[in-house]
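Possible race condition, two jobs.
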Amino acid sequence: MEELIVNLHMHTTYSDGRGSHNDIVQAGLKAGLDVAIVTDHNVLVKNREAYFWGNARQLLLLIGEEVHDRVRTPQNNHLLIFGHSRELASFAPDTQNLIDQAKKNGGLTFLAHPYEHALPLFGEGAFGWVNWEVHGFDGIELWNGLSELKAVIKNRLQAVFYAFFPEFIARGPEPETLRKWDELLQNGSKVVAVGGSDAHSLKIHMGPLQKTIFPYDFHFRAINTHILTPTALTGELEKDRQMVLEALGKGHAFIGYDLPSNTKGFRFTVQGKEHTAMQGDTLQLNGGATLQIKLPGRCECVLLKNGKIAEQWFDREVCTYITTEPGVYRVECYLQFLGKRRGWIFSNPIYLQS
């Protein structure tokens, strides 16, 4: 299998971002991305998907969309859609119909920033997901880089600090989002988790001075979604587009916070008597199985079964766990970085069935 670094959920001047598609391409090439997926609000920008080359590498630029009901107050229920063939914003008032229409038009759907805090200091509301009656969506945005900012800012002094030192922001996914994900998984839903940057390349003015805060290249070096694909990118746009979307849809992916240390090389697999499964897959136990975790560096590694800790390791690069019990198994990894225990890797589940 090949591993591709994907950054998804970002905005340009077509909605509320402050940079262009070209700015994203240049930042992505500089940061070492393989794929960037732009998701402007309520607009599917046409004729932008393409390959770009620079810094001795290639970048696949794909176009998705973040759809929400603009007239709703508050404007909750933001839906990330990837791979669809037509503009879907007109369906936003009915979130279930929106999900159904996205699927009908070949799209994958992810609930954006399901739980987030308001930031009244700057007039920012909380735009989480509230309609939990919906079904048929592919996954959730487990970790959103920009939304996390709302959780850590308590006053104006902190706002200035984090604007100049954004590397101090990230802690990990919102605990409510993790709990909700586990709840959905325990109810029998296969829900894929992705990490989104929500990059806007915001600009602030201080008298005659102007500064870009949280620029694209910062986000692209931080919270990414790493996908596992059968082959490397071929340079054939449509073929590679489908390969990327298929990996996301199947959950052949993990979320990596690459700023403190690159997460490339993480693997979580299960070896059964006859078959091997990776993240997103289902495996029949047939008596027992061995879960194997390969880490790209020494860290705190936690194996969860049905949302509860099954095993925990410290300062290890390879972890092994033998089980005869069915369940939903996933991995969380943590590092010490800039004085805090911070989330590093969050795997998608492997589903073991009896």
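Job #2 (started ~2 s after job #1):
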Amino acid sequence: MSAIIVNNIVKHFELDKRGRQKRMGDGKSQKTTKIVRAVDDISFEVRKGEIFGFLGPNGAGKTTTIRMMTGVLRPTEGKIEILGLDAWKNQIAVKQMTGNVPEMANVYFSFSGWENLMFVGEIYGISKKERVTNAESLLRKFDLYEKRALKTKKYSKGMKQRLLLCMALMTNPQILFLDEPTAGLDVQSSKIIKDLIREYNERGVTVFLTTHDMDVANELCDRIAIINHGKIITLDTPENLKKLTQDYQAIDLQFVNGVNKQEIKNLRNISEVQETQEGIHVIVEDIHESICELVDYIKTQDVKIKQLSTHQPKLEEAFLKIIERGGKTD
């Protein structure tokens, strides 16, 4: 079942003669000189319980899309359904079922961490008893309880990001929208955020994630859509995206003693065996199956592995090639 259904959505912006976006209330002198399609007729579905990655270069349409999905912007054309509800016509109901961590932090810096959570809970109509229970539980889980009375202007960036997640989770949402949740964080803070995302996803929360960090996308996402110039150019699993653009996968092996290279070449998943100064370089079709096959073979021989290393395509390389080719992978 789908948690999110996006059907042929378009979002265009009118620009004035200075190239600035026209807004309601602009005078007649601010005539439209250009219409820009920030999102250009895209469709996709997000399955319940998955972590769905939404990647693209700057200006590709990621943030505009997520703002339409969260009811901040109205689509020029098309329809977005969140858990079966029209996202624009049912904004309040949708907000009560979802949590949102935007790219630009919306923490209230003059409030303490505790006051931020109480304020969010009140906005969404959560009872005082439930607000207190949820806030205490979240602050303890996110390691912020000891700093709950501190004004958030004194929080580190990592603490602010964790507080934003707390705020998004106050309503026990079924879907989390995360726009660059680890941007600018140190390694330790980034790991904390990633672990928390995994934990809530394992509890059944659907996650819609935009990020520029390919390692985050590769580690967390079940499927990834890549958008460029307002259009989705590909959608698949991280593993399949990497396979689409790879030149080859390979395993380097060094042995304590000799090995029969011809017998290794005859193994089912081995494409080619090249001799190196230290051992052999094996080109394979599937890295995981090939390692299992090689280990099984070596167990039957009087051979010991000294060193084994793999060469696999990276999501970042695949992303750059897909963007360069406009989604074409052949």
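DSSP finds eleven helices and 14 strands in the chain.
Logs attached separately.
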